[in-house]
Write a structure and sequence with these properties.
With 441 residues, this protein is mostly beta strands. 7% of the residues lie in helices and 59% in strands. The strands form two sheets. It has a 14-stranded antiparallel β-barrel. A three-stranded antiparallel sheet has the order 13-16-17, with no helix packed on it. Strand 5 and strand 6 form a beta hairpin. The longest helix has 29 residues.
């Protein structure tokens, strides 16, 4: 005997279960983000708000980070909220990802190597009705972390030196909820509402080798929070042969102000070991920091359940963004991603026949120009290449996603730091049939 209960009735009955799951999801994600490690120790994160996140899953990272035109039923894609409409009407998706890697830093005088790891994302997606889908997640919006220093001479006739030391860490995290609607077949629109929050700490310290001078320290602790909005649209266009399709995507996010609380503490440590606070200021503002207008376009061409190729181009007007007493110059940022995947035969039960093989490239410029030793401001470029696989897991509906990414940061002037990184991304995407009709034999 089949259960003929109306879909709306089933939606109401499951509402309490969804609410409880969403609450547990955000609680777990909150503590996970609080415990996460930085995935960078780049000296460039001393400026701005750190390295910006990409709002991508492990699967899309392996495809170069494409997402604006990416529209598949088994990948959660917060980069374009219109993509949520692609989820199967009987499916619940849950996805989380982590990363671990190694980065090499090199300038004209020295090299160093760091091993880093991070919680990358926690997201979920499910349909609320035939035409409406819901997604929620926790993502890193920006990450900072660095430690470096150098010995300098005091000059004059003295041979004395002093150590100038810099260190910093922090994250700005993003909790989002999103909806997509498909008012017309194969055309969807969507929106995300996000809450941004986090702390960034910068510490500067001078230590003299001679016993007489005092050693000054400067500590800045910046807390940021605010609401972010972004919208997206996707138009899925099947070809005449019904085996191929083109998807056109677009996204837009308006400029917003962030609420900030900056605590500045300056101290002096004397030779006797006593520390004296010379300055303690708290600066709170609602418009000292802002995020820029950003927009993007994406195209994806695919052979159904076989292969897909995509390209994204997005642009952010960081030059118009506000950053209180910035030591850098803001710069408009562009980002280009190209990638795709190939699945030999998704209809087979064979492990390798159902495995998705992925690859991609991406490039971008820095959203800031930083001060350099020549007295000018220069930016840098980032290049990357990635490969990966999406392997069937459990009941062959879920997937274990892995990706290996190589990154290169190329400075715009001599004397700046060059960075090489190799990062392993690992994610697990659960695909559960929560809403399938019950059958009683």
């Amino acid at each position: 005997m089949k259960n003929h209960r109306h879909p709306v009735s089933r939606l109401i009955m499951n509402g309490r279960h969804w609410a409880a799951f969403v609450a547990a999801f955000f609680l777990l994600g909150h503590y996970g983000l609080q415990a996460q490690s930085n995935s960078t120790e780049s000296p460039y994160t001393r400026f701005g708000i750190g390295n910006l996140g990409e709002r991508t899953s492990t699967a899309s990272r392996a495809m170069g980070g494409i997402g604006i035109g990416l529209r598949t039923s088994n990948i959660i894609n917060p980069k374009n909220p219109a993509s949520y409409a692609a989820v199967d009407s009987l499916t619940f998706l849950f996805d989380f990802g982590t990363s671990i890697g190694m980065t090499w830093y090199r300038d004209a005088n020295a090299t160093s190597r760091r091993t880093l790891g991070n919680l990358e994302h926690i997201t979920m997606l499910f349909p609320m009705s035939k035409y409406v889908s819901f997604s929620a997640g926790l993502l890193p919006f920006a990450q900072g972390g660095y430690q470096f220093g150098r010995m300098e001479s005091m000059g004059g006739e003295s041979d004395a030196e002093f150590l100038r030391y810099y260190t910093g860490k922090g994250n700005v995290n993003e909790i989002y909820v999103g909806l997509s609607v498909e008012p017309i077949h194969d055309f969807s629109i969507g929106a995300n509402v996000s809450y941004l929050f986090g702390n960034i700490t910068h510490f500067r310290h001078v230590r003299f080798t001679t016993p007489a001078p005092n050693n000054p320290s400067f500590l800045d602790r910046l807390a940021l929070q605010g609401m972010r909005f972004d919208v997206g649209a996707q138009w899925h266009i099947p070809m005449q042969d019904k085996k191929h399709a083109l998807t056109i995507g677009a996204i837009y996010s308006p400029s917003i102000n962030l609420q900030s609380n900056l605590i500045r503490t300056n101290t002096i440590a004397g030779g006797s070991g006593l520390t004296t606070i010379t300055r303690l200021d708290t600066i709170s503002a609602k418009n000292a920091y802002s995020l820029p207008h950003s927009f993007g376009l994406g195209l994806t061409f695919e052979a159904t359940n076989k292969w897909l190729l995509g390209v994204d181009v997005d642009y952010s007007l960081w030059k118009n963004a506000k950053f209180f007493e910035s030591h850098s110059q803001m710069n408009n940022k562009w980002h280009v991603s190209v990638g795709g995947q190939f699945v030999p035969d998704e209809t087979q039960r064979s492990f390798w026949q159902r495995t998705a093989f992925r690859a991609g490239l991406h490039a971008e410029n820095s959203y800031m120009n930083v001060p350099t030793s020549d007295g000018a401001y220069h930016g840098y470029q980032k290049l990357g290449a990635s490969v990966g696989m999406g392997m069937p897991a459990f009941d062959y509906r879920s997937r274990l996603n892995v990706g290996l990414e190589y990154g290169l940061t190329l400075p715009g002037a001599k004397g700046m730091i060059t960075e090489h990184s190799i990062i392993l991304h690992v994610g697990l995407s659960f695909n559960e049939g929560w809403f399938r009709k019950m059958r009683i034999e």
